[in-house]
Amino acid sequence: MASVEEGPLPYNLWEGEKSSSSNSNPTDAVIFAGISMLIGVSCRTLLRRTSVPYTVVLLIIGTALGSLEFGSNYPLGKLGNGIRIWADIDADLLLAVFLPILIFEGAFSMEVHQIKKCMAQMLLLAGPGVLISTVLIGAAVKLAFPYDWNWKTSLLLGAILSATDPVAVVALLKDLGASKKLSTIVEGESMMNDGAAIVVYQLFYRMVLGKSSGWVAVLEYLAEGSLGAVIIGLVFGMASLFWLRFVYNDTLIDFSLALTVSYIAYYTAQEQAEASGILTLVALGMVFAMSKDTHRAGGKQSLHEFWEMIAYIANTLIFILSGVIIAQSIFSIGNFDDNAGRSWGYIFLLYIILQVSRAIVVFVFYPALRYFGYGLNWKEATVVIWSGLRGAVGLALSLSVKGASGDPKYLSAETGAMFVFLTGGSVLLTLIINGSTAQLLLSLFGMDALSKSEENMVNYAKHQLLRKAEEFSRICSGSNNPFDWITVGGYATCIKDVCEDTVWPPCTTNNRYLDIDDMKTMRVCFLKATREAYWSTFNEGGITESIISVLMESVDEAIDLATQGLDDWKYISTRLKFPGYCKFFTNVCPPRLTRWFVLKKLQDSCHICSAFIHAHRIARQLLLDYTGDNGNAAIVIAESEAEELEARKFLESVKNSMPEILHQAESRQVTFSMLKCLDECLNDMEKEGILTEKVVLHIHDLLQNDLEKLSRSPPSVRIPKLGDVISIHPLFLNLSPAIRSDLERSSKVILKTPGCTLYTKGSNPTSVWLIGNGSVTSKRSPFPIHCPVDSTYPRGSILGLYEALVGKPYLCDMVTNSVALCVKIKLESIISLLAHGNGEEELLWKECTIAVAKLLAPDMFKKFSMQEVRGIVDERSVMNTFSSQEIIETSHHSINFLLSGCLRDQTTEQLIECPAILPCSILNESVPSARANVMGESAGSYSKYKVVKEARIVRVDNISV
Fold first, then answer.
1. Most distant CA pair in the chain, distance
2. CATH topology of domain 86-445
3. Which residue of 65, 152, 627, 738 shows the fewest CB atoms closer than 10 Å?
4. Mind listing the GO biological process terms from this record (predicted)?
């Protein structure tokens, strides 16, 4: 480690061993490794069906081997030489060889979702908990032990023993099969607090060696050692994942890169940056854990098996080696302590101190542990206390102290030897006592028992196996070969307790369906079926890595909330929304970058919804098949159907706003299906033997290249170009090519995310907006209308044109309510159209009528599509211009829109300014056919107005037809 000062390394606790060790061959170390692995395989074979922790047995065997070599008159020959070589291993080398494998594997195998939920609990125990435990253990050693150590030395031992060992804890919990929630808390805390404890250890280690610092320097050192380590792990992890993005379907590179980076990251943090290598490995492992859902089924299984295998090898070696080192420390303590029995008594006292300090830490933080994450009840808190094992990491730290000892001014040789002895004894007692009784504690609390619903599942599974056995027996009964069915059935003990009759074939049963009374369990079963459907879709290439991560997270979140309802869509719906910062970036980022981001977000959202609908349909059918006519199942199915409806609404909104997105998604799926079909055809031809191996490999490489190309560069979304949007619009279709060309030069296409404002009420017009795709909604309308005033303007709408023609500020806010492809046309280009005088002005005013009509009378026009509104204006409207002081009459059986000018109502003397709808009273009616006597208006068919300022009025007849 970086903080270890120069000292007599490698050390040798046996004073008289140099002569024998010098005669040994370095290759004897291989014998110890081989024998250790043979012992590990034998123990796994013998203990695989027992509840005895595998690591505890290895530690005992290692202690026995060390005792035979160091404590008896019968040396073990070549094996003994190998034991001595390994026992003299440098402490830093011991950590550097084994920790990158074990810590990374432990962090990588954890569930990221549960890490997020339990992070606060883990940080409490790993941060303040370590400091409190260090002070408690150090104070107890200083006050109760007769070794005359100063406070710095006592706190140094407290730092070594303050944290639980991640290697021992992870190995134990895997053997015991504890609940995932409890395993996550204990494993995560043990990894983090061991890293924090090493930082604290390095601090006191420097102090013991005479490098004292002020409080500011101490705090700075602690921050750099912990936060710096996390940053290093995150940097290495993200860089590795970026590298893997350029690798397609190559598990060897995945394995090799992860293993290599774990060692390099640990070395960089521990030896170069003087930070905690363990915290670096934890951060690195969690970064990789976040990407493990992006592996295909075969690759993920291979990755899991790879890390499980190397972790098993490392665990076997390190626990047997720990036992050897403990035995060596036990038999060497006599060189420094004439009363070794007294030292053993202090080891037992230290064991009690460790348990008490652990209990105090958990008790102090228990209110917070109950509140954060999943919560923690008193039974689980007791298991957390009892899981405070010490292991190889603390032992290696004590070896570092022993290696640097020898100077009576700072660390005497007796102190170094006592550190190893006390730490080794603590490791031995916690593993043997706590490790061997942890399963008993879980059983005592009933934490390993099956719930009622799980018992029903077991019964259901046995009945399913029973029916399969009956079917098999019926098929075989027709065979001419004689079978002894009693003998055959005697081996099927897994279904013997299904029915009372022991005659083979077994009797039938009426229990055909899975009986689940607990709604939470029912929803969890449904969600797990949904998860498997997601995996199937992912392995078939229907969805990408980023999408499967979102879907898996939605299932995890929904399982946590299963008591409240089926809420996986709630999480997904939040991920479909555009982040708030998108509004800012769409205004400052280059248009190409904005377009790429928006289209990518929409594509992923559509794939997520499609996969969600597909998976829920499969899960609903499976639930019906397994549970039959079950009331709880009907509730879950109804909840699923309601969520599917929401997903369909989202897809429909995308189809209306950006239909090109769905076309792209379908093209990608068809392309992938075709390539997979070709791959299956190639496999069939290979099986038939009509192709040589060289030809098969050549064509297979070509297919893999095509699949990789599809994965990296899927079909692009072809959104309409500027010229296409303008040329197909009815307004600009009637313009000459020269005028359209001028408009295109003064326009630009902008892709807007939902919630973006095109313009605000009261601002001066600077441009006109043509909606090419998507829709926009008006906000903050100034008109006193008793019906909803927000109007939606779909594809083909032209906004801001009316304000540009009449010279008024914008009448309202215009905000996108979906992804919208907008064409921004400069105001000068629109004004220049009026100068041509070839009928363009009338076209522009008619186009204004559409926007004004939807703004002033939203209830009347909301039932019409944009094409229908345009048809009504084209076919049933008449535009007239009236001079000042002229008297006009408007029929109550038609709608008149005042586009420009000012009128005075002859009946009420009310001044009416544009834009307005005539007669004004019809705004209080949803149907414009019966408007007489409204708001005190006299019965009649017409209203009279006097033109105050030259007015332009558009009359629309038969609007209700």
1. 128
2. Na+/H+ antiporter like fold (1.20.1530)
3. 738
4. regulation of intracellular pH; sodium ion import across plasma membrane
